[in-house]
Amino acid sequence: MNRSLQIPNILYFHIIGLLCCLTVIGCQQDDSNLNEQPSELESKVDTLTLEEDTATLELPAENPEPRRHAYFDPFVKLISGRGDSVPGVSFENEYLKYYQEEMKKGMKKLNRKRLLPLKQWYSSVLEEHGRNDSLVAFYPFSGGDFLHLHNVYPNSSHYLMLAIEPVGSVPRFTKATKDSLPGYLKSLRYTLRDVWNHSYFITKHMQEDLKEDPNIDGMFMSILWGLGATGHDIADVKRAKLDSTGTLVISAIDSIHKEMFDEGVEVTFFHPSNCNLKSVVYLRCNIADKGINKSAKLDTFLTNLPPVNTFIKAASYLPHYSSFSKIRAAILNSSVNLLQDDTGVPFAELEADSMRVFLYGKYVLPLKVFGPGVFQQDMKRKYADTNYFKGDLPFSMGYHAHTKSQSQIVAMKNYHGPEIAVEELAKKDELKEENQATSELEEDAEELAFEEPKEEETKQPEAKSKSEITPNVEQIKLEKKTPTSPKNENPQEPKRETPATEEESVPDVVYRIQIAATSKRKSSNSSVFKGLPIWTYEEGGLYKHTTGSFSTEGAAIRRRDEVRELGFLDAFVIKFENEKRVQ
User: Fold this and answer.
1) Which residues partner with 5 through β-bridges?
2) Whole-angstrom Cα distance, residue 321 to residue 299?
3) Assigned domain for 442 exists
4) How many domains does the chain have?
5) What mean pLDDT comes out for the span 441-469?
6) What is the full DSSP assignment across 11-42?
7) Cα–Cα distance, 279 to 91 (Å, whole number)
8) Which residues have a Cβ under 8 Å from the Cβ of 432 and sit 6 or more positions away?
9) What is the band of 328 on the pLDDT scale with cuts at 50, 70, 90?
10) 432 lies in a domain?
11) What CA–CA distance (Å, rounded) separates 349 from 512?
12) Cα torsion at 546, 552, 557, 558 (round to 10°)?
């Protein structure tokens, strides 16, 4: 029998969080929670109908043992380098061993240089101001980057990610398809290269990967990898979507094909050190005004967001634009705590919304591809004011990740959250047990490298006309309006370009490491190459096999030394211009 449960819309995510917290009875508690101090914010209240066969809430039994999903849990361990099998299939090959070791080394370095300093720094900032760090964590313009979101808000019980990219699917490995694993893992590593090396997805690369690589068809894989990389186990995976009333509906799936996740996905997960069940929802949606205006359900959903802790990173300055006014308003209306770089909500609007704003790091001109029109002169002046400027940053993240010239903005709003009594929750009938469904990559671009990024001073971008200011979400066509920055009075709409990092500004010259030359062409999957991604070119009657692709000779030399340690003692660096080798 189906019953519906009427719950204030603003309480939806809070109730999920409370239920998750109840599961820790008798289990090890997470001692990382910070002191919470309520303040003042008027609550928005609406009603939300939850159907029992979709997203009805269930009070957990006492001392529950979290159930791991029969397929997704071992699959996530496999792709994050923590496991070597899925149900019915055990993988034993040299590439998997290499992949596991590289993941281990890469995460160790990433945690040391970026993630752990980020987590500790922001935690101390929130604790200093007595802020609640366990609200719903909201990440607009997220792509599939769960990794950084979790490290910013590790104590949240629920994560909400919104982006334009498709959800995608995961492969179902069987004994018949087990040999495809190396190619799949290579594709995944390649897709994650920008998150590793730059801390964000580069839109151009992401679009090319989704279009050209049959192994990767959406953000689902990146999210699952991020869950595994942060040490989590998977309890369940369900379909997520908005119904016609703007209600978030969660329902069971009967397969793992991408058709099951056409609009969104919810993953329930936990850390094995405790019983604290959490969830992340990814919704595919166009959050430009044009997209929201076409979707009444999305408009309603954003209007009724509960109080959230928000994270914005490398957003191409889209929140500066009048054509993104609705998502900007939703961020301002619902954010209790906000961490962003200068690509997020403009400083002037944060102050106009009566948020307390604190500035960190060093504020410099945006990358030249975005033009000078998104530079915030008012914020630049505040960096000289000790009432706003609060210190340097112990990590690198965002568009200036390879330099020390980067800024982070913390904005806080007074908030008094609603009291939620256990009596408000209804226990539902038992759900039927859900079904536990248990190309070779074109390798002519950058290897997923774990070498140290070369630190260099940010070059000041050349001045561009304001008509050349460019956001980087190519599938969203901006209306002919100006950015909301008060300094920009030019009514002409910015010209569309493909954004790039400074390192990409001269893409015609690359350095590769040559490791072998053969008279016959060898498959890039050959065991001879010990799992290295291979790009082959023909010259002088020989097939010459290379690995890696770097914009600087220094980075290539560092990688060459690592390759030599794998046994390719004669490896050397070669230079290409426009895909042709030069001496």
Assistant:
1) 50
2) 18
3) no
4) 2
5) 34
6) GHHHHHHHHHHHTTTTS---TTPPP------P
7) 29
8) none
9) very high
10) no
11) 46
12) -110
